[in-house]
UniProtKB/TrEMBL annotation:
It comes from Stenotrophomonas aracearum. It comes from the Bacteria. This is Hsp70 family protein. Keywords: ATP-binding, Nucleotide-binding. InterPro entries: ATPase_NBD, Hsp_70_fam. Pfam families: HSP70. PANTHER family: HEAT SHOCK PROTEIN 70KDA.
Length: 453
């Protein structure tokens, strides 16, 4: 059986078409899970290399062999040079072995925890590795070791989805249609799209899939909307997710297969609002704008999806920073606290979409520390993204040359009223149809996987 998989920045889901209807894959009691995984077993960092007795033995063996070869060739090699060369070989072999382990270790997979439970387990255990939103890193310039680590993490998540689907459907799931954004978040331009797809394909095969194909997420949402539309009509599909915003112009409904005319996308979404809200409303509690701490330190702390920036933040020294900022920053560096702060930011964003104020308690940083955030702060944080969204929708309107009969709005961030208003304003002559924010894309992927549309 072939399933559809929405491997999302914030949340992931899967579904299959069984006897003509979409059947969601359930992860515990839910039909989706936060794209977060916690490994109680520590995934070793190559920077952790240290000589063990076994490695010392291998080092001595390599030095002796190199010395013999040099003597046989009539050469004299300095002992320090021989040791440096042998040490490079031992360290390289150690790194290769460590970086293979996350891809092959059944122990890591068996003990891994996913979704919101991953956060709770990480907070409780206070050790191990927590990885959030690995999708946001797929298109970035990655060192080979980092790429292998990201591939391994994606493999674990896709394996979790495949095994869960196989148990629920009582059949071995070996093929899938994966959703993909029009434009992945990238630091290397268009090459980031190719790299991201290569990583996902490699991860899927390693996760036990025999074959996978990809479908742009707004096209998948259009297929879902098509399946629910009795009358044929022209539509623009707007999918606002955590990491990307994607748009498709399509003909849907009726008895004919849907037709996707064109797709657009920007690598911006809800996580960009999270970052702006964190920097504007929460990081001033840690001295942003009031201390001499460089501004990029606060960005590093706020970007929990970026493992490199998180590591850089933990390595800064704040002992000499003025009170109270120094001690608060040191507390923020403690295991799990950037993730705790990010969760508070998410809660704040969701709350302020309907409430005038949200209060966050930050006792994990300092006793009685907290902040009350007004809705105006969220509106300010969302300003830059709203500008980019408006620009995208204006481009779409200009490219197609008319208002479609309907605009179908989906994606996790489509719940926000201010985003609904922005989309409606971009197409004043269209009927705004609000789809299922969480499952519009994955239902379309399931239909595509079944070949029914």
């Amino acid at each position: 059986m072939k399933i559809g998989i929405d491997f999302g920045t914030s949340n992931s889901a899967a579904a299959a078409v069984v006897e003509g209807r979409v059947v969601p894959i359930r992860f515990g009691e839910a039909e989706q899970f936060r794209t977060t995984v916690y490994f109680p077993e520590v995934m070793r960092d190559p920077n952790d290399f240290a000589l063990t007795p076994a490695l010392e033995h291998e080092l001595a063996r390599l030095i002796d062999a190199a010395a013999r070869d040099a003597r046989a060739a009539g050469q004299e090699r300095a002992p320090d040079a021989l040791r440096r060369e042998a040490l490079r070989v031992v360290r390289r072999q150690w790194m290769e072995e460590q970086m293979r382990a996350p891809l092959t270790s059944t122990k890591l997979l068996q003990n891994a925890v996913y979704g919101d439970e991953a956060l709770e387990a990480y907070f409780e255990e206070n050790e191990g590795n927590l990885v959030q939103s690995p999708k946001s890193m797929l298109g970035y310039n990655l060192h080979p070791r980092a790429r292998q680590t990201i591939t391994g993490i994606a493999t674990h998540i896709l394996e979790h989805i495949r095994l869960t689907a196989s148990r629920q459907l009582d059949t071995a799931v070996r093929t899938a249609t994966l959703g993909r954004p029009v434009q992945f978040r990238s630091s290397i331009g268009a090459a980031g799209n190719d790299q991201a797809l290569e990583i996902l394909h490699t991860a899927a095969i390693a996760a036990g899939f025999d074959s996978v194909d990809f479908l742009e997420e707004p096209a998948a949402a259009a297929m879902h909307y098509h399946a629910e539309s009795a009358q044929e009509h022209d539509t623009v599909v707007v999918d606002i997710g955590g990491g990307t915003t994607d748009v498709a112009h399509a003909r849907v409904g009726g008895t004919q297969a849907p037709k996707i005319h064109r797709a657009w996308g920007i690598a911006r979404g809800g996580t960009d609002i999270d970052l702006a809200l964190s920097l504007g409303a929460y990081m001033p509690l840690f001295g942003r704008g009031s201390s001499r701490v460089p501004a990029h330190h606060y960005v590093e702390a706020a970007m929990v999806q970026d493992m490199t920036r998180q590591r850089d933040f933990r390595q800064h020294a704040y002992r000499d920073v003025d009170a109270p900022w120094g001690k608060r920053l040191q507390a923020l560096q403690e295991t799990g606290n950037t993730a705790r702060l990010y969760r508070e930011v998410e809660r704040c964003k969701i709350s302020l979409s309907s409430e005038a104020q949200h209060a966050s308690a930050l006792d994990f940083i300092e006793r009685d520390l907290g902040v009350a955030v007004e809705r105006a702060r969220l509106e300010g944080a969302a300003g830059q993204y709203l500008g980019e969204l408006t620009g995208l929708l204006e481009q779409v309107r200009a490219d197609i040359g008319h208002d479609p009969a309907a605009v179908f709005l989906t994606g996790g961030m489509s719940r926000a009223g201010y985003l609904q208003q922005a989309v409606a304003a971009a197409f004043p002559g269209s009927t705004l149809v609000r789809g299922n924010p969480s499952f519009g894309v994955v239902h379309g992927l399931a239909w595509a996987a079944a070949g029914n549309v």
